Automatic annotation (TrEMBL):
Residues 341-432 form the Apple domain. Residues 1-29 form the signal peptide. Belongs to the protein kinase superfamily. Ser/Thr protein kinase family. One of its GO terms (molecular function) is carbohydrate binding. The lineage of its organism: Eukaryota, Viridiplantae, Streptophyta, Embryophyta, Tracheophyta. This is Receptor-like serine/threonine-protein kinase. The keyword Transmembrane applies.
Length: 890
């Protein structure tokens, strides 16, 4: 054969070929492919070392597929997808099994992707498909997908989220779908934090205990009831959606093209927003972090550390430990091992021999207790301890003496926080950690064991009783020293304890021993007198009675509302309502700090809002003019507060008396709704009709006149009226300036709307002017003339339109408060007011007086025995009759 070359001749050729290969492979590997790579393809960190492992980019450049080496450590490499401008890792393939060598490869073949160890064993791979893989595609949403020859998706990374979701990705509400944090910044294996979508909520948990839930977050709004099927994130916010796609809970966020929701290795859920997915511009705002308070993170200060606003410390009898947390200073071991407790797992309820407790001091709170119901309610601190002692999984307990609530700490000990939320009752919150003293674990003959078990038990018991007695006595002494009556109250409580955990079962109307879990701090009348300096400074008078300024022992200011002359029935009803109100927390709702009920006296202690109510700032000529930006902030804040009342609480609350007098302001732009929950609570059975007329004229929806149901949309109407007053800067129906201004200013100071007088001749009705302005497309002229045009024209238009939508005569066609808030923020599409639903404003404006405060006549509602409401129109309503008298209890 003449063509056959002799072997020695082939050798140099092979060598050249080999050299060529060596040169070619890195050259080929070093180039980043765009959108697709096709089999057979190989990548390793070494092959793509020039691009730091990046081997594939999406078309717009927003995302990259990479052999990722987080933190620059050289022994853990992952197949990952990064958001390229921010270098955020949004997905990891082999988080549990990292590649341990930079030369180790990942391969794309017709059967899928496999990630290999240096010796060639696959440590991670995609499942087997019936059809061959034609390509691997990374799209501009960040989804890495395997496609077949017809471009159908065989497998995609969006179905297997790790610790991150990006816009357009959804997380179903199934047990198998959850986000798990990374263990650390450079170790992407599963850490201990979880994000789950449950049937009702979005929750963050650590070692099985919940530390945050969306529905409890002030920034969320609930749109409707229903079962959550999935979580989705997109350009306008985060949504929990029902199976039909309807939104159940949402967080509206500023418009953005891309959002990345990441559960950090520290347990914090961070949402970053990017105006453009592939631009390197910085995120559009600081973003959204949950929980918003750093101390609410389970390990904010390490195990058993104490998180305070000033930083991390250790509880009194604890010292810093080597692992970054705290440990008992006396060297006792904690947590006690489960085996030593349950006697090899058999006797589950036998008391442990060598268990004792170390106090955490007063005023401590635990992150897990904020969201979970107490393990036991109504017992005393000893019964709480007994419960912990007999439960092997109990690691410690927290006891709240003001609500008689007992919380057991389970699973794992995290950080504690100093409970600054109820500073008046610091010493009511006690915490104890279960410890095992070091001399335990002795084993011998059965007799020896018995003694070894019995003796410490008795000793421990005696010790616990003594310590308990000392603690309780010194605690009472301290209480008595600071406030005598308080101690008496505690004594009374202890004398007749009730084991009933049932909410109202334990309440006796005639005694002072009202026991309701979750009740806010209860004050004696003497304490109230102390704090208000015997009711010296009166700061207002609402529909219920006078409001006084006061100061708690810790120096924080409060407003004390004396409730008088309204049908507040028994103590039981009162306390039940107080427990509900006291448990509503939202940045835009005035917080109830405590209450007092003694004999016939009923007082409520609220946080103090130093700028008073909105009507002052808005209508009083002597007050500094509210700028347009502030008015927008007030509108949005108040809308959010109301939306929370309507949808955010377990029990839907309709305010029934939305008006500027009930919107309070404080420095720092705080806006809060006051007096909520004082109208009757809406239970499902009574969600229709109210038996007494509530609310205040001028803000009353037309359905108050008809027999139509009073719903949350009734508040929406009133809020619409408030919005118009915010725009115009005066009452919607103003008396004539000559005889109205002075009286208006003085009467609104005591928190009630003056009964209109028949004297006011022609009163111009602003809602009608707003409707006409809308029809003419002239919005800017509607704004408060005192602002002299210093307004944002687009926003004036927006607010007027939203207000008019709120006034729609048909309640069903008014937006919900959540939608109102979204529209005001500009995060939801603006509705167009329907003019034909607003015709009644012309009637109100031209003399006829509806439920709206009239110029020459007014309307009186009466209820006869049969429950039918009669409407009487009265002329010349005397000016001295206040709205309260017309409206009845609010
Ligand atoms: C961003 O993506 C768009 C299309 O998605 C593209 O037109 C634009 O060039 C990209 N910008 C950069 C900086 O890559
Ligand atoms: C490959 O190497 C890993 C350690 O890097 C080892 O655990 C595994 O057993 C090896 N597999 C084979 C088939 O040698
Ligand atoms: C698959 O998608 C690519 C890129 O969009 C396109 O070029 C190709 O023609 C598609 N193949 C089929 C079978 O549709
Ligand atoms: C969250 O998901 C994990 C994993 O499926 C599960 O073990 C845990 O119980 C879930 N937690 C909740 C609160 O649903
Ligand atoms: C985001 O999703 C919600 C709920 O599905 C939807 O109402 C909204 O229009 C979406 N926003 C964008 C920008 O797609
Ligand atoms: C605590 O309550 C139990 C009954 O539940 C009672 O036997 C015990 O005496 C009470 N202890 C104190 C200190 O009041
Ligand atoms: C310990 O208490 C928890 C509730 O806090 C309970 O779920 C568990 O069953 C208890 N264990 C025993 C052994 O009683």
């Amino acid at each position: 054969m003449p063509t056959r070359l002799p072997l020695p001749a082939v050798a140099p050729l092979l060598l050249v070929l080999l050299l060529l290969l060596i040169i070619i492979i890195p050259a080929r590997g070093g180039r980043i492919a765009t959108e697709f790579v096709v089999p057979d393809f190989t990548a390793s960190y070494l092959l793509f070392i020039d691009t730091f492992g990046v081997f594939l980019a999406s078309r717009g450049g927003a995302f990259q597929a990479v052999v990722y080496n987080p933190g620059g450590q050289q022994d853990r490499f992952y197949l990952a997808v990064l958001h390229s401008p921010s270098k955020t890792c949004v997905w990891v393939a082999n988080r549990a099994a990292p590649i341990t060598d930079r030369a180790a490869q990942l391969q794309l073949t017709a059967s899928g992707i496999s990630v290999q160890d240096p010796n060639g064993t696959a440590i991670w791979s995609t499942p087997a498909f019936g059809v061959p893989v034609a390509s691997l595609r990374l799209d501009d949403r960040g989804n890495l997908a395997l496609l077949d020859a017809r471009n159908a998706t065989l497998w995609q990374s969006f179905d297997h989220p790790t610790d991150t979701l990006v816009s357009s990705q959804t997380l179903p509400a199934t047990a198998a779908a959850f986000l798990a944090s990374a263990a650390s910044e450079s170790d992407l294996s599963e850490g201990e934090y979880r994000l789950n979508v449950t049937a009702a909520d979005l929750v963050l948990t650590w070692m099985g205990s919940m530390y945050w839930r969306l529905s409890n977050d002030a920034r969320s709004t609930m749109d409707r009831a229903g079962t959550v099927a999935s979580m989705a994130v997109n350009g306008t916010g985060v949504y929990l959606e029902a199976a039909d796609g309807g939104v159940i809970i949402q967080v509206s966020l500023p418009a953005a093209e891309l959002r990345i929701v990441k559960l950090g290795y520290d347990g914090k859920l961070q949402i970053s927003s990017f105006a453009s997915a592939n631009s390197s511009a910085t995120p559009i705002d600081a973003g959204f972090a949950a929980p918003s308070d750093g101390c609410a993170l389970p390990l904010s200060c390490g195990a058993m550390g104490l998180c305070t606003p000033k930083g991390c410390t250790c509880p009194p009898q604890f010292a810093a430990s080597h692992d970054g947390g705290c440990a008992p200073s006396d060297g006792s071991s904690t947590p006690p091992s489960v085996a030593s407790c349950s006697g090899d797992g058999r006797g589950s309820s036998s008391s442990s021999p060598s268990v004792s407790y170390i106090s955490l001091g007063n005023g401590v709170a635990y992150y897990a207790n904020k969201l979970a119901p107490p393990t036991m309610a109504g017992g005393n601190v000893s019964s709480c301890q007994a419960l912990c002692s007999t439960n092997c999984s109990c690691l410690g307990y927290l006891y709240d003496a003001s609500s008689l609530s007992c919380y057991l700490v389970q699973h794992q000990l995290g950080s504690f926080m100093s409970d600054d939320s109820t500073s008046g009752s610091d010493s009511d919150k006690l915490g104890f950690i279960k410890v095992r003293s070091s001399q335990s674990s002795s084993s011998g003959s059965s007799k020896g064991t018995l003694i070894a078990i019995l003796l410490p038990t008795i000793l421990a018991f005696v010790l616990v009783v003594i310590i308990g007695a000392i603690v309780i006595r010194s605690w009472r002494k301290e209480k008595r020293r600071s406030s005598r009556p308080r101690g008496d109250l505690e004594l009374r409580r202890h004398r007749s304890p009730s084991d009933s955990a049932h909410l109202v079962g334990a309440i006796d109307d005639d005694s002072d021993d009202v026991v309701i879990p979750g009740l806010p701090t209860r004050f004696t009348h003497e304490e109230i007198e102390d704090m208000t300096n015997s009711f010296r400074i009166k700061i207002g008078a609402g529909g219920f009675g006078a409001v006084y300024k006061g100061e708690l022992p810790d120096g924080s200011q409060v407003a004390v509302k004396k409730i008088e002359g309204v049908g507040m029935q028994g103590k039981r009803e009162f306390c039940t309502e107080i427990a509900v109100i006291g448990n509503i927390h939202h940045v835009n709702l005035v917080r109830l700090r405590g209450f007092c009920t003694e004999g016939q006296r009923r007082l409520l202690v609220y946080e103090y809002m130093n700028r008073g109510s909105l009507d002052r700032s808005l209508f009083r000529p002597t007050c500094p003019l509210l700028g347009w930006k502030e008015r927008m902030d007030v509108a949005i804040g108040a809308a959010r507060g109301l939306a929370y009342l309507h949808f955010g609480c377990d029990q839907r609350i309709i305010h029934c008396d939305v008006k500027p007098e009930n919107i309070l302001l404080a420095d720092g732009g705080q806006v809060k709704i006051a007096d909520f929950g004082l109208a009757k609570f809406l239970t499902p059975e009574q969600s229709g009709l109210f038996t007494t007329m509530r609310g205040t004229r001028g803000y009353l929806a037309p359905e108050w006149l008809s027999n139509a149901a009073i719903t949350d949309r009734t508040d929406v109407y009133s809020f619409g009226m408030v919005l118009l007053e915010l725009v115009r800067g005066r009452k919607n129906r103003s008396e004539h300036v000559s005889d109205g201004a002075g009286g208006e200013a003085s009467s609104s100071s005591n928190g009630t709307t003056t009964g209109s007088s028949s004297r006011g001749a022609k009163s111009d009705y602003f809602p009608l002017a707003a409707l006409e302005g809308h029809e003419a497309g002239k919005y800017a002229e509607l704004a408060d003339p005192r602002l002299q045009g210093r307004v944002v024209a687009k926003e004036v238009e927006r607010v007027v339109k939203v207000a008019l939508c709120c006034l729609h005569e048909d309640p069903h066609l008014r937006p919900s408060m959540a939608v109102v808030a979204g529209m005001l923020e500009g995060t939801m599409e603006l509705w167009e007011p329907r003019v034909h639903l607003l015709g009644f404003l012309r009637l109100y404006g031209r003399g006829f007086s509806g439920p709206v405060d009239g110029g020459g006549s007014d309307v009186h509602l009466k209820q006869d025995g049969s429950g039918a409401t009669t409407v009487t129109t009265m002329s010349g309503w005397p000016s001295y009759l206040s709205s309260t008298q017309l409206s009845g209890p609010r």
